[in-house]
Amino acid sequence: xxxxxxxxxxxxxxxxxxxxxxxxxxxxxxxxxxxxxxxxxxxxxxxxxxxxxxxxxxxxxxxxxxxxxxxxxxxxxxxxxxxxxxxxxxxxxxxxxxxxxxxxxxxxxxxxxxxxxxxxxxxxxxxxxxxxxxxxxxxxxxxxxxxxxxxxxxxxxx
Length: 158
Hints:
Layout: H1 11-25, H2 36-47, E1 52-54, E2 57-60, E3 64-67, E4 71-77, E5 87-94, E6 101-106, E7 114-120, E8 126-134, E9 139-150
Parallel strand pairs: 1-9, 3-9
Antiparallel strand pairs: 2-4, 4-7, 5-6, 5-8, 8-9
């Protein structure tokens, strides 16, 4: 008769190793701190430094949210959405999240309407900026201040 093979790792050894691996995953995570300057840099990257015009863009976002983990927002842009005059892209930025560039939506005249809806995370109370890029190369924008009582993106694992 053949003797049964013993596992290469004992149950006790496996549990000890798993505990060590678990300890590695619970170390505190330090969030990146974005600034208004990083917001401006991200906007310049998208616009190429072109002027931002006020108007045409509407940003519907609650001014006060309890939890920053899922903040509903809607961006709409006034446009005939014709072949010659349409919205090419909608971009959303914020100033205090680790990544200031939150959303890109590329659309064209066949979309019929220039509307984007999403839920975004907000790390803290901050300004949210929506920018529309039109087919004529112009950029239009609006912004809104949002107060967040329980921040997202910055929770530390304990």
